[in-house]
Amino acid sequence: MKTFSLLLLLLSFQIINAETDSTQTEKEQLKWELINKLGVDLSEVTFVNWSAGGSNSISALTNAVSTLKYTQNLLKWNSFARLRYGVNKQENQKLRKTEDEFELASSLGYRKDTLTNWYYSSRFNFKTQLTNGYSYPDRDNEISKLMAPGYLFVGGGVEYGKNLEEFAFYFSPLTFKATFVLDEMLSNAGAFGVNPAVYDDEGNIIEAGERMRTEMGVLISNYYEAQVYENISLIHNLSLYSDYLNNFGNVDVDWEVVFDFKVNDYVKATLGSHLKYDDDVKTFTETEEGEQEEHGSKVQWKQLLGVGVVFDF
Questions:
Q1: What is the pLDDT of residue 292?
Q2: How far apart are CA 216 and CA 60, in angstroms?
């Protein structure tokens, strides 16, 4: 009887232990992770009796990112929201905007087993800005506004990566792109690729400009994050898109490379490069008669160097 009781007790312990292991395994497979980052970069220059001359200035750039990740067995869901806003104030000049971007993105991936690194994926991405943009020093004519433009990408395809947070290659043969220009003046001018307004001989609008341009094309993107040295990290993000219906083979490029130099847990320096090309975004110059003359699309490039503080919470 004692032997039977001992065996029963041992069996009960094994069942409880197995249930505990199973619960731990489920917790490992089911995981929510929320990461928030807030960074502020500052730069300042002051001159006092400087023989070479110069203008006092101060700049600030705020970068806020909130990332939500969900993992369960063979399923991965990553989403993030990002806000970047920067201003510059020089002596004897009004405040100028240097950065303005609001982005929402979400990707859902599923793989058939734990051995493969290929995922069936779908993606959503939305970008716009918050405040009016100007071609300084002209502050009377806006060249961009909130939702003018606004960009929306929705598509599905395949994605490869052993660790998608560090390396991911995404190919979507079918991606929908919408360009929003929700401003009457800009849409009538045909800004950002929408069809412009139609006028009669007296300059009256017969047909208003379009508020949205739609495309369907192929999207290829690559994300790479690496620790170059102990305190230097690299982030590479490349996106290539081509529309099937309009000038297929003419590729829109969005390529960003950022180096982060970590001083300590709170202080860092950032060196970044952002290159863009969109055939639908035309450039204009003002003629002697005061009219706008179109010069076609050009490569857009922005370089960033800043030192600031960053908080994780």
A1: 52
A2: 38
Per-residue pLDDT for 298 more than 50? yes
CATH number at residue 265: 2.40.230
Which residues span the domain enclosing 81? 2-312
Least confident of 60-64, 88-92, 126-130: 88-92
- pLDDT average, residue stretch 85-96: 91
Q: Burial, 210: exposed, middle or buried (Cβ in 10 Å; 0-12, 13-18, 19+)?
A: middle
The Cα 281–Cα 297 span in angstroms is 6
What's this model's pTM, rounded to 2 decimal places?
0.83
Q: What is the DSSP-derived secondary structure letter of residue 148?
A: B
Q: Which DSSP string corresponds to 25-79?
A: HHHHHEEEEEEEEEEEEEEEE--SS-TT----EEEEEEEEEEEEEEEETTEEEEE
- C-alpha dihedral sign at 16, 22, 23, 24: positive
Total count of domains within the chain: 1
pLDDT digits (tens, 9 = 90+) for 53-85: 777 889 999 999 999 999 988 999 999 999 999
Residue 266 Cα distances to 201, 213, 263, 305, 306, angstroms:
62, 43, 8, 17, 14
Higher pLDDT, 263 or 285: 263
Buried b (16+ CB within 10 A) or exposed e, 22-33: eeeeeeeeeeee
Q: Which residue, 306, 232, 225, is CA-closest to 269?
A: 306
